[in-house]
Design goal:
The chain is an alpha+beta fold and about 200 residues long. The chain is about 15% helix and about 35% strand. The chain folds into 2 domains: about 110 residues, Roll (Diaminopimelate Epimerase, Chain A, domain 1), CATH 3.10.310.10; about 80 residues, Diaminopimelate Epimerase, Chain A, domain 1 (Roll). The strands form 3 sheets. Strands 1, 2, 3, 4, 5, 6, 7 and 8 form an 8-stranded mixed beta sheet that branches. A 3-stranded mixed beta sheet has the order 11-12-13, with helices on one face. Strands 9-10 form a two-stranded antiparallel sheet. α1 links the parallel β2 and β3. Its EC number is 5.1.1.7.
Length: about 200
Amino acid sequence: MNNLEAYKMDGLGNDFIIFDKRKKSISLTKDQIVKISNRNNIGCDQVIFIDKDESSNAFLKFYNSDGGEISACGNGSRCVAYLLMKENNSKEISLRTKVGTLQAELSDKNLVSINMGQPNFEWNKIPLIKEMDNKNLQIKINSIDGKEMTGGFSLSVGNPHIVFFVENFNQFNLKEIGPKIENHNYFPEKCNVTLANIKNRK
């Protein structure tokens, strides 16, 4: 692999290596993406490619650290949007992905927000390995003190997510739970794992 120019960026705990194909053609194999993503190398959660697009500011492709392509990523898109905003001296950017065009805005506090559109709850669009109740996948997780809870609300916002609603975040070790659930056999494309707490139902 020749020397390639890339950006390394972080968005809310996820880190990305970003290649800009608009000026120079770049093609990486699955094995090369895996090698770059490895934490013993540069290391990242995802590799992103920026390409030219006629209908928006750029077209994005996303690859997980195992080399598999995914449709979109909110935090990765935010990082790319920030780069393009600085490049174009603009507070608004549109990015086309496999799930559609995402609109990004830069706030007065220099923070990027992005509209990921409507989530998808269809089991085969998330996707899940088979048809099942996406509102309760009956996946078990354990709290720090060993108590077991069962649940899991799944959806897609361009890539698969599962949400566990808990009463107390401090009772769960997400760093321990995350990798186990991420690779659960219900999710053929893996998934992002989130803990959520309902403050009120208004």
